[in-house]
Design a protein that fits this description.
Layout lengths: L1 E8 L2 E8 L2 H5 L10 H6 L3 E4 L10 H14 L5 E5 L6 H13 L3 E3 L2 H6 L14 H5 L3 H20 L4
Parallel strand pairs: 3-4, 4-5
Antiparallel strand pairs: 1-2
C-alpha cells in the first residue's frame, strides 16, 4: 500500500509517498521488485530507505546484495538517503552504511535517537499490550527522525542539488 501525502511548505508544494518495505526485510531472498514499479514510475526527487529493523540477520551477505539491488532499482536520476535502523544494532548499521556507500547514496545514522532518549518510543506516554509496537518511534520519535533527515535535505536544497 502506498500512502500519498501533499503539503505546502515555503510556497512549494511538497508531495510524498510512503511505502512500508517490511516485507522486503522479511523476504529479501525472493522479493518481487515489480511491486515497487508505481514508485519508480512516480520519479521521486528523493528516496529515503529506512530499513533493517525487521531483518533477522540470517544471511548478511545476501541481505546486503538484495538491499543494494533494491536501492539501485530506483535508477540514478534522484537522491537516495539510507538511514541506520533506529534500534541501533552495529551489524545492521554497517550493512546499511555499506549499502549507501556502494550505491552512492547519503547515509544518516538515526540509531542514536533511540539509544539515549526514551521519549522517542511510542510507549513513552502510552502502554501497549504488544511490547514490540511500543518500541517503535512515537510521534516525538518520528519528529526527531524527520529533523535528522532534514539537516541533510536542507543542505542539499541550499547547495541547489534538489
Amino acid at each position: 500500500m502506498i500512502r500519498k501525502i501533499s503539503i505546502k511548505q515555503n510556497n512549494r508544494l511538497v508531495r510524498a509517498r510512503v511505502y512500508n518495505l517490511a516485507n522486503f526485510e522479511r523476504h529479501y531472498s525472493n522479493y518481487d521488485y515489480n511491486i515497487l514499479k508505481p514508485l519508480v514510475e512516480y520519479k521521486p526527487d528523493i528516496i529515503i530507505f529506512q530499513l533493517g529493523e525487521n531483518y533477522k540477520r540470517e544471511n548478511d551477505e545476501l541481505y546486503f546484495k538484495q538491499l543494494v539491488k533494491l536501492i539501485n532499482y530506483f535508477g540514478n536520476d534522484n537522491i537516495k538517503i539510507v538511514t541506520s535502523p533506529y534500534w541501533g544494532q552495529r551489524r545492521k548499521n554497517k550493512l546499511n552504511e555499506k549499502a549507501a556507500l556502494d550505491t552512492n547514496s547519503f547515509y544518516v545514522d538515526i540509531s542514536n535517537l533511540f539509544a539515549y532518549d526514551k521519549k522517542t518510543r511510542a510507549d513513552y506516554k502510552k502502554k501497549y499490550s504488544n511490547e514490540g509496537l511500543g518500541m517503535h518511534p512515537g510521534e516525538y520519535g518520528m519528529q526527531r527522525i524527520a529533523e535528522e533527515l532534514f539537516v541533510l535535505i536542507n543542505a542539499l536544497i541550499n547547495k541547489k542539488l534538489i
